[in-house]
Protein: Beta-ureidopropionase
Organism: Senna tora
Amino acid sequence: MDNTQNGEAKEELKASSDGSICGFDSLHRLLKQNLKPQQFQEVSRLLLGLNCGRELDTISLPESVTAVSVEHGFDLQAFSFHADKELLREPRVVRVGLIQNSIALPTTAPFLDQKMAIFKKLKPIIDAAGASGVNILCLQEAWMMPFAFCTREKRWCEFAEPVDGESTQFLQSFALKYNMVIISPILERDINHGEVLWNTAVVIGNHGNVIGKHRKNHIPRVGDFNESTYYMEGNTGHPVFETAYGKIAINICYGRHHPLNWLAFGLNGAEIVFNPSATVGELSEPMWPIEARNAAIANSYFVASINRVGTETFPNPFTSGDGKPAHADFGHFYGSSHFSAPDASCTPSLSRKRDGLIIADMDLNLCRQLKDKWGFRMTARYDLYADTLARYLKPDFEPQVISDPLLHKKTL
């Protein structure tokens, strides 16, 4: 490589180190900038799919909301998922919003200051969602704190709070003000059960009431993400919450890697499943646009994927037990929040490096229309799956493998 090429490579690496993709906020924006319009349209069709046979429409939001996004520097995008017109049902359109954000203060700041700074940072973004007419809003996993769970330091437990604690009280006022359901993923301290901790999503109703909670079903033990130092697998099953705007469920972070977890929410009647997450580029980014979209298709519901953004550096280096040197951060949380629909269409993603609010209108009639079209529920063989799972759980389980009788026979 000559000096010119070497310099270009260094510049590209520098551009990527800030969380961008070759200097662009997202893959979608990189492609749009560098492809001819006709090429971009075809690539976009392949990457994002078509909703009822056409590209997703964008939504025009109030100028005041756009002005707030510019003032506070957060990415703002809005789209509309349509369903076919029906003869016996009116459209069931719900407006959904997702917020991704970085932390507001260094992790070395006093804990209360850190939490209050996040509240202050999110207020204008939540107000923007409310002013845009969002009916259901979801925040990212453990939004009220840095994602310190993989440091394995117990002092971060101080961020934990009961279901009716500071974060819920902070959000209840917005729920009341904007007639909005809010999903708040927190680090929960279970006062009634010996103050044990859980990774919990609190569902706040549009009247400011707490409808219920769901605790994270699957806890990762991979790389830095060994969260069982703080909390274990949840005990709330796969609840679906019937709200004023539809039936919703929450598949918290690592649960997205487990297809049966997605399935169970669908069997319980979910129309929208939210996936509030905290995941970094090196670990999971190739999976990110695939798993949620596949879940939406396979289970005939909408999926709303949220990931935090930024690099969070901690005062004490930690190791992963994988032989790599001690380090003070997990890597870059790549944002890229987006929506997926049951007809295989999906929105572009939010920025990979900036705070953001993405909004989508969803006609929930699309869920049943896709069930009717593909017949996945009708053609599934739950009896066979249940039998296999029941046998698998037994200590004397033997896989159903039929070997070629000639496989190990010696030949002359």
User: Anything to note?
Assistant: Residues 186 and 381 are 37 Å apart (CA to CA).
